[in-house]
Structures are given as structure tokens and as C-alpha cells.
Amino acid sequence: MKKLLFFILFLTTVSFDTPTATQPAQSSAFEVGEWFRFRIHYGIINAGYAELEVKDAVRNNKKVYHAKGKGYTVGMTKFFFEVNDDYQSYFDKESGSPYQFVRKIDEGGYTKNQEGFFDHKTKTVMVKDYKKKTEKTFEVPYNTQDILSTFYYLRNHPEVDHLEVGESINVDMFFDDETTKFKLKFIGREDLKTKFGVISTMIFRPYVQAGRVFKEQESLTVWISDDKNKLPLRIKANLAVGSIKADLDQFKGLKNTFTVKSKPK
Hints:
The chain has three helices and 15 strands. It is mainly beta. It is globular, with a radius of gyration of 18 Å.
């Protein structure tokens, strides 16, 4: 439960194909001003919300994207297990490479307060831990992303529309002082019934290496809009009893037309 909102909010980052090292990201799926919110629920019970938005910022004397993500519990869930997560990323508008990330979380009393600074020339990331009062530098593979920049970086890949069912892709992502290797599997396409109507979607299932943070295989499924936005619509986590879902609840500022096959009845 401790990392539930984290999984639901940010495992959408592994829903897409990875650009090759020589292929720059193309800003076609989003723009400054995009904002959307997920409702996280167990059946009819609201557990919390997760929000993502894109703003402008300046890093290294150039304009960059500033992505901000937050997750929080509500109602009785907040009473039993309060969560307040703040994830931020500053990344290049042309290449999608991250410059800096922020991670401030409070999950039932489990807290972290970190900033990370990428140096892609030396293939390192320097992490300042304000809680532990430490500063460490880690080596990372070329083209490594932070957890939030990955989501936006991968939405723009031109080949995502041409994946074959069953194909898998690996993604390097820096998280919790280590580089995590994700294996992504494209499941297929489906017309998904949402509060906005019936929407054509692409379905992905992420698999991760066994380790300290993740199990070898996560029981997660992600639906994204099969249009130019590549917007996450639903994330489902199977549990021993039932499942927890995160459904797109509100949005604004999309760069492209949001395609709906039929309106809700």
C-alpha cells in the first residue's frame, strides 16, 4: 500500500516505446498547459487522485519543459493512510533529456526529499538527499530518464503506432538511487468505455527486473488513447482480492484533438 499511488500515477511512464539514442523526441503529443487528473478507486470507493501538468521553465539558460506530478489520498483512505507525493522533472524541449528531478513524498509517514541533476556528457546523475543530508553521484546508461520525464519523452516516439502485438521494449529509468530496467509488452488494441465515451486505445503491460523495489512481474495493465495525444486513460493493478484502478477523470490543454468514437449514453 505504501507505494500504491506511486505505481498508479507513474507506471504510465512505461507504456510506450523508447526512442533510440540518436533519435530526438518530437514534441507532438503534448504542449505547455496540458493538465489531467486520475481518480484512483477500489470499486466505488475513492482512494485518491493523481495529477500531471506541463509548464515552462529555464535550465542551463534555455527554455525547458517543467512537468509536475502529484498524488494524494482522500476521504477515509486519507484517514487510514495519508499520501502526499510531489514529483517534478525539468527536461529538454527538443531531445527530451532530463536536466533535473524533484521527489518529495510522504506515504503513511514514509518520507523522501531528493533532487537529482543529470550530466549526460559524463553519464552521471548527482542526487542530493535533503532528509539524509547526503550528496551522491551515480553512473547511468546513455539516454537514461527520470521517472517523470520518461512519460513525456516516450509519448512522442513515432514508432509507437507501428508496434506488433507481443513486441517488448527495454527502458532505462533512474529511480531510488539505481537504474531500473523495464521490459514493456504491447498487448493489443481495444475500444474502452470511459466517462468521456468509447475511445480507441492501445494496451500495454510492463514487466520489471526483480530487485529491492519491484517484483519480477507486476500485475499492471495500461490503456492509452490510440491518437496523437497518447494519453493514459486507465491503469489497472490486480490484487489478491479484486483490483485497484486509476481512470482519467478530467483534462485540459491537450495539443491534439481528443478522439472519441461515441459519446457516453
